[in-house]
């Protein structure tokens, strides 16, 4: 069974290092430490409704809890470039986001609860997962799964998504998926069906790693895997997931709840369960 939680808002960043631009140099360290602590507190409050206070992840009843987190920010995120399968590292903001998310998890008592941390093999997800493992749950098993990668945007990879022509090409594919036409592919890239099938396979594999597993993945995969789960209406996550027949898919995707889900932003270092 799957519960899809609305992603929390991004952690506020003020100035390149988290301090207000007009902070005096002599007081910058104190101001930065105070602001960082406030952001960790904010992250703690955002994550807490997903798995309860003090690490209360529920009784171990044979049902695995997946805590699914998007990687931290990269330079390409900031520049609006479509990353796809390109291996882009976290920037300074992304590393700080990963640290704050990890500290929030540690405050919630997750150190003894998490059995495994799994991520895609791409650097931005892997680096985020490594920070979480080190700070929040050092006793957990670490794994990577290539199937957790972002959408393969094909020939659109590396292009700026706010460019009118590129935006139109991207939206044409995503709008088709929103209509339930999952066979539609990005130019020289991936179809919605391919994305969802590997997403479901990777989440099923993650669920086999323990009773509580942190999964660090990418926005597109998280969004469309969640949509697929909603399409199945809480049914067992099937490794052999296939989209429903076209008429049925079109009707199901017209559900306002699913439309809201696939339209909502998946922010850096946000968490769903």
Overview of the structural elements:
- The structure is a single chain.
- With 273 residues, the chain is an alpha/beta fold.
- It is 44% helix and 8% strand.
- It has a five-stranded mixed beta sheet.
- α4 (123-135) links the parallel β2 and β3 (141-144).
- α1 crosses α3 (92-107).
- The protein is globular.
- It starts with 24 loop residues before the first helix and ends with a strand.
- The model is unreliable at 1-34 (pLDDT under 50).
Instruction: Show unreliable segments.
Output: 1-34
Averaged pLDDT: 81
Q: Radius of gyration from the CA trace?
A: 19 Å
> SSE order in H/E notation?
HEHHEHEHHEHHHE
Kindly list the characteristics that best describe this protein.
273 residues; alpha/beta; globular; disordered N terminus
Q: What's this entry about, in short?
A:
By secondary structure, the protein is of the alpha/beta class. Helix content is 44%, strand content 8%.
Task: Please outline the helices and strands.
Blueprint: H1 25-51, E1 65-70, H2 75-79, H3 92-107, E2 116-119, H4 123-135, E3 141-144, H5 164-178, H6 192-207, E4 212-217, H7 219-231, H8 246-253, H9 256-263, E5 271-272
Parallel strand pairs: 1-4, 2-3, 2-4
Antiparallel strand pairs: 1-5
């Amino acid at each position: 069974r799957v519960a899809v939680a609305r992603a929390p808002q991004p952690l506020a960043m003020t100035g390149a290092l988290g301090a207000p631009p007009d902070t005096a140099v002599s007081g910058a360290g104190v101001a930065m430490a105070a602001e960082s602590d406030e952001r960790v507190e904010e992250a703690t409050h955002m994550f807490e409704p997903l798995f309860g206070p003090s690490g209360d992840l529920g009784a171990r009843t044979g049902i695995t809890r997946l805590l699914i987190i998007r990687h931290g920010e990269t330079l390409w995120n900031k520049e609006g470039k479509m990353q796809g399968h390109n291996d882009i590292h976290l920037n300074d903001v992304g590393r700080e986001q990963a640290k704050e998310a990890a500290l929030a998890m540690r405050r919630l008592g997750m150190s003894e609860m998490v059995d495994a941390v799994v991520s895609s093999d791409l650097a931005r997800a892997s680096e985020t997962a490594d920070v979480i493992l080190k700070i929040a749950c050092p006793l957990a098993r670490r794994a990577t799964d290539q199937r957790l990668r972002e959408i393969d945007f094909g020939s659109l990879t590396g292009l700026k998504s706010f460019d009118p022509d590129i935006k139109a090409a991207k939206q044409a594919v995503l709008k088709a998926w929103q209509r339930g036409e999952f066979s539609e592919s990005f130019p020289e890239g991936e179809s919605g069906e391919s994305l969802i099938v590997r997403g479901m396979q990777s989440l099923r594999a993650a669920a086999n790693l323990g009773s509580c597993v942190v999964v660090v993945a990418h926005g597109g995969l998280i969004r469309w895997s969640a949509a697929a789960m909603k399409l199945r209406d809480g049914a067992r996550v099937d490794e052999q997931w296939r989209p429903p027949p076209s008429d049925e898919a079109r009707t199901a995707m017209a559900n306002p709840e699913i439309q809201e889900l696939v339209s909502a932003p998946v922010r850096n270092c946000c968490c769903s369960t």
